[in-house]
Design goal:
The protein has 104 residues and is α+β, with helices and mostly antiparallel strands. It has 2 domains: 31 residues, no CATH class; 70 residues. It is 66% helix and 16% strand. The protein has 2 helices and 3 strands; from the N terminus they run βββαα. A 3-stranded antiparallel beta sheet has the order 1-2-3, with no helix packed on it. Helix 1 runs antiparallel to helix 2.
């Protein structure tokens, strides 16, 4: 039978694969156990939510500043836009890391 044999109490996962000569070969791969994976995802989830709210706050402050106009908007519009773009990039990178962590 080909497939993973997983024990939740251990970090090691043994994979069984059938070789060309019909013998069963085993290889040892170190993986995160369920608790470690859930802890990693909960930290990533919190970071993603914080980055999301920071992005929304930067976007909202930029829109409010643009709507009021004036000298403040002229001086700070570029900084607010760069902050928003940077926070969007951070959120995107965190989402990709979370996606890759679930695939591991």
């Amino acid at each position: 039978m080909v497939g993973p044999t997983v024990e939740l109490t251990e970090i090691k996962v043994w994979y069984r694969a059938t070789c060309f000569d019909g013998k069963v070969a085993r290889s040892n791969h170190v993986r995160l156990n369920r608790r470690e994976k859930e802890a990693t995802m909960s930290v990533l989830t919190v970071l993603i939510v914080v980055a999301l709210f920071a992005t929304v706050a930067a976007l909202t402050s930029g829109i409010v500043s643009m709507a009021h106009g004036g000298e403040y908007d002229v001086r700070h519009s570029t900084k607010m836009m760069l902050a928003r773009v940077g926070l969007q990039g951070l959120t995107f990178v965190l989402l990709i890391v979370a996606l890759l962590a679930t695939l591991r």
